[in-house]
Specification:
With 585 residues, the protein is an alpha+beta fold. It contains 21 helices and 25 strands. Bound molecules: fe (ii) ion (FE2).
Length: 585
């Protein structure tokens, strides 16, 4: 049975393909279109998934779609009658429902050489989130929770997973949303773009939560652990603010109302300097989010009494909050999937449909996140040959290693010598984090690396932290926890006595966004970090995404173009070793 999962007409449009319940391919449309968070119909991602699996459109039995226009209609009508939102908002909702209903037509347009004979199965947005977390988790039993801005008129949901069964038992409905709260305050702090919330999370540790009392007037935690927004501070419930659901980067007008300015003072404009006051507001936003999430999780744990938690939805990308869940709530084990946001809803929808089908089949483990395109050394060689004159003009030495050991030895030496390395290996990561296949790597011992990479290579805000990839077996020796965090989804404190040894990956509060690397998950990357440890005694590398214009590079040509434009000194693609450090000095 072939199930194609789609996230369409949402930000982070994506597709994945399951064959008999086993994941074969998964990718975000943005990686092909080269437009961040691309929304609309994921036609390129679909074509890739079919090609990777070697199947035709007519072989697809079911298309599982993240989102069900019919879900929560009662809630929609009740809210509509009570709150009288603008005609533009209502029209937008109806148009989006109409687009989803024409999935068959969009499929045949995306794959004109094929014909679709299967069925289209919509899956409620939060059920898709819950399924993306539970059916990829290493637990037979777990509480599943999703928290986001909105999907199908809900902003949070929870339920219980057991084996191949998953039930959704509760929701928080429109217009109350922790995702909207965080996004509105992110805009208020002068970060207006879709997905900018991680900048507020990175800024928060520089401040104090001195505005927490004010935040508690904006978000009201209820006695039952759920939350409500004080709607006077928002606009999303009465105006159409989002755009570009059928292509391009999603945008939103200001979600906050002028009353928020009365509460917090003037907002920051995007180009204004970031001041300590902004850091204090960011710290307070983060503290409020953690307080509300903690109350919700405490309430949900009391319902089920199960200590395993799986978490998805856009808010599950908040790795700082995730890192505190197992110490500040009754849950003891946490799994956050590689694609926790809306892209992952494609996989969640597909897994929900598969496990709901009549086929009796056990859970199929999803043991890594490298489900995107990969390239052979021969293909990489052709790209290098095509750009040979430009590489020569930059005095770039190119050679091919004989085996993986030589690749790792060369790369580890370059890193230990202080060079910044582009690392392009295997299949591209699914989800927003670099997990060792499309990464820029550096020596975490060098304090100046952070500024150098921020300014010269990534050209991003200097307050944003860098993450380490650490050998799984060394975690307890370097961190205050001993946990598997294979998808870089949790921040944890680095042991105090170790912090001075790895200043480039130690955030201002002593924490770091942990990425644990096991030999079974990514053997080549594990081998590379081991080689670096053998030279330096430090079992970790600074790991940041190999991006070109803020988008993860997908193919060798993009990686090479990015290398030539930046101050990166070494590029390792497959077994090809490119070194221009003699000229960049
Ligand atoms: Fe969502």
């Amino acid at each position: 049975m072939i199930v194609l999962g789609l996230n369409a007409y949402h930000g982070d449009a994506s597709a994945c393909l399951l064959r008999d319940g086993r994941l074969v391919a998964a990718v975000e449309e943005e990686r092909f279109r080269r437009i961040k968070h691309w929304s609309g119909f994921p036609s390129e991602a679909i074509r890739y998934c079919l090609a990777q699996a070697g199947v035709r459109l007519q072989d697809v039995d079911c298309v599982a779609v993240n989102g069900d226009p019919g879900a929560n209609l009662g809630g929609k009508l009740r809210f509509t009658l009570r709150s009288l939102p603008s005609p533009a908002l209502l029209l937008d909702r109806l148009q989006n429902s109409g687009r989803r209903m024409s999935i068959e037509a969009a499929l045949e347009k995306a794959v004109p050489e094929g014909t679709f004979h299967g069925i289209v199965q919509p899956v409620e947005h939060h059920l898709a989130h819950l399924a993306s977390a539970f059916f990829t988790a290493p637990y037979e039993h777990a509480v599943a929770v999703s928290v986001d801005s909105f999907g199908d008129m809900s902003s949070a949901a929870w339920g219980l997973g057991a084996g191949t069964r998953l039930q959704m038992d509760g929701r928080v409905g429109f217009p109350h949303s922790l995702g909207i709260f965080y996004q509105a305050l992110t805009q208020f702090l002068g970060f207006p773009h879709y997905g900018d919330e991680h900048k507020v999370m990175g800024l928060a540790p520089y401040g104090q939560p001195s505005y927490l009392d004010e935040m508690r007037r904006v978000v009201k935690v209820q006695a039952d652990g759920t939350f409500r927004l004080q709607l006077d501070y928002f606009r999303h419930h009465r105006e159409k603010l989002t755009r570009a659901q059928d292509g391009g980067t999603p945008e939103s007008g200001p979600l906050w109302s002028p009353k928020l300015e009365q509460l917090l003072g003037p907002p920051r404009t995007p180009r204004a300097p970031v001041t300590p006051r902004h850091a204090d507001i960011a710290s307070s936003v983060q503290a409020m989010y953690e307080e509300a999430l903690g109350a919700l999780l405490g309430h949900i744990h009391a319902i089920y009494g199960v200590d395993n938690l799986v978490l998805a939805g856009g808010c599950a990308l908040n790795s700082a909050a995730n890192g505190r869940i197992c110490t500040s709530t009754p849950f003891r084990h946490l799994h956050v999937p590689a694609a926790a946001g809306n892209a992952g809803g494609a996989l969640g929808a597909a897994l929900a449909v598969w496990h709901d089908s009549e086929v009796e089949a056990p859970r199929q483990p999803v043991e890594h996140a490298c489900w995107g395109p990969g390239y052979t050394d021969a293909e990489i060689g052709v790209v290098i040959k095509n750009l040979w004159s430009r590489l020569r003009a930059r005095d770039c030495a190119v050679r091919s290693a004989g085996n993986d050991a030589e690749v790792c030895e060369f790369t580890a030496r370059a890193l230990a010598d202080g060079k910044v390395v582009g690392w392009f290996q295997g299949r591209m990561e699914w989800g927003p984090r670099p997990l060792g296949n499309r990464s820029i790597l550096a020596d975490p011992r060098r304090a100046d690396m952070r500024e150098f990479i921020s300014q010269k290579i990534k050209r991003r805000d200097s307050f944003r932290p860098f993450s380490p990839s650490i050998l799984r077996e060394a975690v307890a020796d370097w961190f205050e926890v001993d946990a598997d965090v294979p998808y870089m989804s949790q921040a944890h404190p680095i042991r105090e006595e170790r912090q001075d040894q790895v200043p480039a990956v130690t955030h201002v509060d002593g924490s770091s966004h942990l990425h644990t690397v096991s030999a079974s998950f990514n053997p080549l990357y594990h081998r590379l970090i081991s080689a670096f440890r053998d030279i330096t005694g430090v079992p970790m590398l600074l790991n940041t995404s190999f991006t070109d214009h803020e988008l993860l590079v997908c193919n060798p040509a993009e990686a090479l173009e990015c290398f030539l434009r930046s101050d990166m000194e070494v590029l390792v693609m497959g077994r090809y070793l490119l070194d221009r450090s003699r000229t960049t000095g």
